[in-house]
Specification:
Elements lengths: L1 H4 L1 E4 L2 E2 L6 E2 L13 E5 L8 E6 L4 E7 L2 E6 L4 E6 L4 E5 L4 E5 L6 E6 L8 E2 L2 H9 L1
Antiparallel strand pairs: 1-9, 2-3, 4-11, 5-10, 5-12, 6-9, 6-11, 7-8, 7-10
The protein binds thymidine-5'-diphosphate.
Thymidine-5'-diphosphate binds next to strand 4 and strand 5.
């Protein structure tokens, strides 16, 4: 069920010869109130980020610049999304394991999150996550 809810989200684009603009409104373009924004940058070639799931957190992940892949798992099945447009994000509900791989040079991974940072919300061990989600 959680994996089925993962989806690409097309964000609004205001095309302009001076440079394009994309905006995101909480509970309009993402189905949650945005309580936190963070971004990954200067990711060295070959590095992997993520490697966790969350008990409650929902996120929208966007390649604000460059590209990378988001590999998702519900403990049984995997789904893979390539993000390479500044106006497309992937929505990830609670209880989905995520890995971020294959970052292009200079890419920026922008994350909109539904909760403040809380280490207690994380599953950082895949087997523990798998047991919890399948129980
Ligand atoms: P983590 O969520 O594991 O990073 P990623 O999923 O992008 O690979 O977080 C890495 C470290 O940064 C960890 O020590 C916690 C810290 N951190 C915060 O302090 N606040 C935050 O909002 C986030 C996302 C991480």
């Amino acid at each position: 069920m959680s994996l089925a809810a993962c989806r690409l989200v097309d964000l609004p684009r205001v095309a302009d010869p001076r440079g394009n603009l994309t905006f995101i409104e909480a509970e309009e373009h993402v189905p949650f109130p945005i309580r936190r924004v963070y971004y990954l940058y200067d990711v060295p070639g070959g590095e992997t980020r993520g490697g966790h799931a969350h008990r409650e957190l929902e996120q929208l992940i966007i390649a604000a610049s460059g590209s990378f892949e988001v590999v998702l798992s519900d403990g049984l099945t995997q789904a893979r999304f390539l993000l390479n447009r500044s106006y497309v994000g992937v929505y990830i509900p609670r209880m989905v394991w995520r890995e971020l791989v294959n970052f292009s040079s200079g890419s920026v991974c922008l994350v909109l999150a539904s909760t403040h940072y809380d280490e207690a919300d994380y599953f950082r061990d895949f087997d523990e996550f798998r047991s919890a989600v399948l129980s």
